[in-house]
């Protein structure tokens, strides 16, 4: 017999505290946390706590690198939800976080928009790969997402973000995003985006020009201080996408890409990442 998918009222594991519900909005309030620490040449995970719609699962490590998969145990976020994910990577640790499936922002009975906050902290000589699956903005949804990253001067980061505007054959909801990266007490990147109903000009020729998939890949590496990569337009990628790699005013590089759908966007990001890796060799 096939088990039914979990609902928003699905019971929680006995050892996990229940997600709180605000009387004012009736949305889900939940925070998931992971902490990685270096121990005897490998990376340990002393804290791995899921909450609300989030479940965290250990994956098989790759050498000294710890790997964690973020699972959605019920549909979320809905309008009115307040969700947060925190990851702390200690000195010398190496952590790769991925997700099992796309996150679908949905309308819901609660008033107001949904919030998805991601707070990442990476210590000196540590590395974090944050590469989740896309966020999909369904019709009627209203999601505000903010990714905050605090990096020590000797930290390394690979951060991917993908946004798909609407499911197949439907208009998009509203999706506002912000990425704030601080490196060694200085702001390296503070980027705002807004798409969908109420966002002026988002579908015009100066922004997406009809495309429905947008993504970026941020790579921070101390090695870029001495040999930063140059600006490059990705015109030889195997996808119907447009992308550009630009250096930041600091030890980092940012790829921005647009595509007609999620598949072409993924192929563009993968090609850009391979180019950056080859350029370092």
TrEMBL record:
InterPro entries: UreD. Keywords: Chaperone, Cytoplasm, Nickel insertion. It is found in: Cytoplasm. Residues 1-25 are annotated as: Disordered. It comes from the Bacteria. Transmembrane segments: none annotated. The keyword Chloroplast does not apply. One of its GO terms (cellular component) is cytoplasm. One of its GO terms (molecular function) is nickel cation binding. UreD, UreF and UreG form a complex that acts as a GTP-hydrolysis-dependent molecular chaperone, activating the urease apoprotein by helping to assemble the nickel containing metallocenter of UreC. The UreE protein probably delivers the nickel. Belongs to the UreD family. Required for maturation of urease via the functional incorporation of the urease nickel metallocenter. This is Urease accessory protein UreD. The gene is ureD.
């Amino acid at each position: 017999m096939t088990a039914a998918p979990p609902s928003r009222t699905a019971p929680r594991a006995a050892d996990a505290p229940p997600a709180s519900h605000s009387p004012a909005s009736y949305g889900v309030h939940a925070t998931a946390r992971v902490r990685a620490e270096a121990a005897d040449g490998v990376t340990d995970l002393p804290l791995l706590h899921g909450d609300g719609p989030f479940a965290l699962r250990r994956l098989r490590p790759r050498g000294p690198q710890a790997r964690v998969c973020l699972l959605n145990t019920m549909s979320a976020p809905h309008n009115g939800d307040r969700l947060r994910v925190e990851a702390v990577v200690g000195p010398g640790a190496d952590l790769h976080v991925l997700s099992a499936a796309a996150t679908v922002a949905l309308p819901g009975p609660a008033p107001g928009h949904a919030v998805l906050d991601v707070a990442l902290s990476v210590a000196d000589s540590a590395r974090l790969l944050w590469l989740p699956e896309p966020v999909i903005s369904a019709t009627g949804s209203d999601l505000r997402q903010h990714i905050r990253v605090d990096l020590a001067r000797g930290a390394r980061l690979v951060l991917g973000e993908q946004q798909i505007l609407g499911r197949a054959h439907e208009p998009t909801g509203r999706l506002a995003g912000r990425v704030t990266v601080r490196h060694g007490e200085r702001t390296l990147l503070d980027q705002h985006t807004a798409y969908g109903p109420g966002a002026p000009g988002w579908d015009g020729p100066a922004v997406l020009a009809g495309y429905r998939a947008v993504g970026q890949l941020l790579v921070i590496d101390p090695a870029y201080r001495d040999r930063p990569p140059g600006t490059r337009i990705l015109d030889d990628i195997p996808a119907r996408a447009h992308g550009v790699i630009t250096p930041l005013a600091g030890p980092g590089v940012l790829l921005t890409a647009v595509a007609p759908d999620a598949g072409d966007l993924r192929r563009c990001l993968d090609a850009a990442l391979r180019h950056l890796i080859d350029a370092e060799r």
